[in-house]
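Input (structure):
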């Protein structure tokens, strides 16, 4: 490595370390200052709440005293409305303020004195009002003329003023402290910005220097990578041929398996016919007390039919599996036919095909989003969305109405996204990938099927150059997300530039 590169690496590392240390210091200081600011803000809010509560309590006392005096002067019960409301809230407000001042003994003790004065004043007002209501007006007025109530109220006002002044002073102090921390935070932020600018400038210089050396290295890489595109195309062609061989092998194997399976099914039918004759004969045989005859009857009437039934169910299952493999093999060998597609119309047609099933389930299907025009294989798209909608209907939730939503949108890189969401049974997390495997199913097996639907869908989606994934949770529903290229012709055009091969005859069309 040239010395200049070593020097560049050392310089860049040193600048990075200095910048990182400065950044950490700035972040730590900023976090501390923000914490201090938050603390002062919270203290200021608490003191403001205390002041508001004291002012509210003073107002309640004044309202109660005003109502008492009005009632004593006029005897009109209407004056007791503010009195009753105020006396009903005074005790609650005293409890609130005592709770607010619980951690502050310097103000808690004066407030205890104030609370005693408030209680005494409230008791005095209640006593006079009670005497007046009882018809003892002279006694009530005599109690007022003693001046005890006025003295209590004056003392309470003085304590109110002291406590409110103290809270205002604390508010001013907290605001001043908060302003100091804000100023410090401003200067710290400004200093941090300057440090970051210096670090960025150093990084830009390092990038420029590195880029110059990178250009030289790139020239060397271009020499080494001459012909790399041709080699990649060659490897891609080999992979395509290998994939075709796998599909051909699967086709041949399943096709050759069908011949003995058909023989088994045919001979099973003949065996069943023969067994019916034997069973009819055994029912006419007399001497049923003989052990051998009884065993023969059981074998002909019960055991053999049961065994034949097992053979039939097994051959039917194997026939279904062979058909599934053949279906996937044909899909991989089918020639795609790109054509302009109105995606919205295609989705509406797919929805219409299952509308009667959705209606029977008491559900609805909604199509959302703007469906961009695309060029793709119509038959494959119809099969993809038909399978997904059929699954959504088949695996709906048993206790709630079916809801299916199709969402379409365009993404960067000329991709189209279609999401098929339902509120059905959902799929367990451990089965999110398994459901795309051949012959694998998830959840309760209470619906007919061989477990090839999603495997077939994924094969078709990948054949179109796309990908399918899912998001699901049990009892919440499933969302299938299909990402497809907008223009399939471009993808096929790239593949057609690879060496082509001659397609062989479809053995299944000749053999079946």
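Output (sequence):
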């Amino acid at each position: 490595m040239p010395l200049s590169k070593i020097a560049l690496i050392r310089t860049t590392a040193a600048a990075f370390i200095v910048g990182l240390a400065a950044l950490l210091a700035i972040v730590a200081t900023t976090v501390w200052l923000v914490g201090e600011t938050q603390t002062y803000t919270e203290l200021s809010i608490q003191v403001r709440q205390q002041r508001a509560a004291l002012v509210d309590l003073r107002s309640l006392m004044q309202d109660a005293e005003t109502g008492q005096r009005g009632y004593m002067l006029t005897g009109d019960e209407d004056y007791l409305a503010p009195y009753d409301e105020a006396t009903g809230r005074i005790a609650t407000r005293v409890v609130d303020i005592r709770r607010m001042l619980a951690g502050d003994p310097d103000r808690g003790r004066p407030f205890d004195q104030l609370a005693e004065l408030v209680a005494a004043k409230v008791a005095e007002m209640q006593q006079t009002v009670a005497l007046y209501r009882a018809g003892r007006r002279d006694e009530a007025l005599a109690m007022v003329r003693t001046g005890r109530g006025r003295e209590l109220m004056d003392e309470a006002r003085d304590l109110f003023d002291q406590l409110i002044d103290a809270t205002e002073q604390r508010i001013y102090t907290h605001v001043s402290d908060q302003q100091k921390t804000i100023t410090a935070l401003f200067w710290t932020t400004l200093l941090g910005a300057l440090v970051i600018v210096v670090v960025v400038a150093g990084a830009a210089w390092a990038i420029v220097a590195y880029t110059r050396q990178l250009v030289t290295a790139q020239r060397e890489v271009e020499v080494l990578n001459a012909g790399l595109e041709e080699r990649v195309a060659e490897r891609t062609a080999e992979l395509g041929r290998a994939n075709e061989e796998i599909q051909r092998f699967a086709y041949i194997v399943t096709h050759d398996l069908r011949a003995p399976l058909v023989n088994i099914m045919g001979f099973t039918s003949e065996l069943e016919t023969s067994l019916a004759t034997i069973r009819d004969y055994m029912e006419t045989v007399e001497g049923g007390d003989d052990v051998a005859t009884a065993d023969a009857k059981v074998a002909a009437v019960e055991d053999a039919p049961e065994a034949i039934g097992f053979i039939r169910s097994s051959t039917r299952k194997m026939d279904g599996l062979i058909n599934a493999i053949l279906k996937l093999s044909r899909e991989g060998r089918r020639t795609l036919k790109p054509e302009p597609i109105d995606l919205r119309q295609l989705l509406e047609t797919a929805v219409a095909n299952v509308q009667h099933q959705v209606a029977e389930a008491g559900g609805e299907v909604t199509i959302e989003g703007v469906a961009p025009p695309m060029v793709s294989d119509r038959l494959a798209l119809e099969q993809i969305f038909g399978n997904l909608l059929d699954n959504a209907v088949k695996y709906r939730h048993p206790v709630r109405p079916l809801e299916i939503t199709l969402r379409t949108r365009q993404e960067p890189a000329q991709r189209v996204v279609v999401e098929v969401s339902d509120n059905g049974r959902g799929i367990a997390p451990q089965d999110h990938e398994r459901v795309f495997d051949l012959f694998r199913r998830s959840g309760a097996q209470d619906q007919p099927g061989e477990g090839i639907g999603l495997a077939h869908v994924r094969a078709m989606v990948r054949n179109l150059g796309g990908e399918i994934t899912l998001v699901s949770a049990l009892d919440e529903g499933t969302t299938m997300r299909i990402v497809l290229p907008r223009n399939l012709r471009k993808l096929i055009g790239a593949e057609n530039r690879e060496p082509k091969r001659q397609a062989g005859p479809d053995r299944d069309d000749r053999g079946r």
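Notes: The chain is about 70% helix and 10% strand. Residues 469 and 481 are 5 Å apart (CA to CA).
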